[in-house]
Design brief:
single chain, about 220 residues, alpha/beta, three-stranded mixed sheet, Class_I_gatase-like, hydrolase
Length: about 220
């Protein structure tokens, strides 16, 4: 798997260069699918205008508007109601998945219910996550980030990487996302945990982890 796990999208040259290095063709020749599902589970970002902004490439977080050959929409909540042959070939053929922020547990629920979670490890596509779209890859998200509550409770996520992510470190609009809060969060997590600001991303290729940053980040190891 090739993962680019960002806090706020592809918003600086270092992260952009990391993305282009992960692709086997130029962005202008690459097809993308955007997945806005996480937004619907979060009261700040969806549904409504901000979801449309993400899908249309008019948000403040560069992902959809990077110059892709084509961009489609893959809505995970719709997938259980249609036949797999209607959507699986499309996903298998696409070059990039662009997964929005929002609520990580809501996204995790629909990743699993839709069948997308089972499909992800076999895909050739580069997975580009933003905030919740990145956090969902971890084994757990931590109590600090629990908003929407899944039917069975808990904070379990997909576990496709062995570390957890605390995004938006020291963001001016999120006064509780401090380094002190990240330290407390990390103390309650099992395994490695990263706190990353909006100028930072984590690149994962075949299990090899590399931090790409023009800002601040910290690894909490156990």
């Amino acid at each position: 798997m090739k993962l680019l796990l960002t806090s706020a999208g592809v918003n600086n040259k270092s992260i952009h260069d990391a993305l282009t290095g992960m692709l086997d063709k130029p962005i202008a020749e690459s097809t993308a699918l955007c997945i806005p599902t996480a937004m619907y589970g979060h009261p700040w970002v969806g549904p409504g205008v901000r979801t449309w902004d993400f899908i249309s490439g008019n948000s403040e977080n560069p992902m959809v508007d990077l110059g892709w050959k084509s961009v489609g929409v893959l809505e995970l909540t719709a997938l259980p109601s249609i036949d797999e042959e209607r959507w699986m070939p499309l996903v298998k053929e696409t070059d990039v998945l662009l997964v929005s922020g929002g609520d990580a547990l809501y996204l995790n629920y629909w990743m699993k219910k839709s069948g997308m979670a089972e499909l992800l490890p076999s895909l050739k596509a580069v997975y580009v996550g933003m905030s919740a779209g990145s956090m969902v890859m971890a084994p757990h998200i931590g109590e600090f980030f629990v908003g929407w509550t899944p039917p069975g409770g808990g904070d379990d996520a997909l576990g496709l990487v062995d570390f957890s992510i605390f995004p938006h470190l020291d963001h001016e609009m999120l006064p509780h996302n401090t380094m002190a809060a990240a330290e407390k969060w990390a103390a309650g997590m099992q395994g490695p945990a990263y706190a990353v600001d909006d100028e930072t991303a984590i690149k994962v290729i075949d299990g090899e982890v590399e931090v790409v940053s023009e800002g601040n980040w910290r690894l909490f190891s156990k």
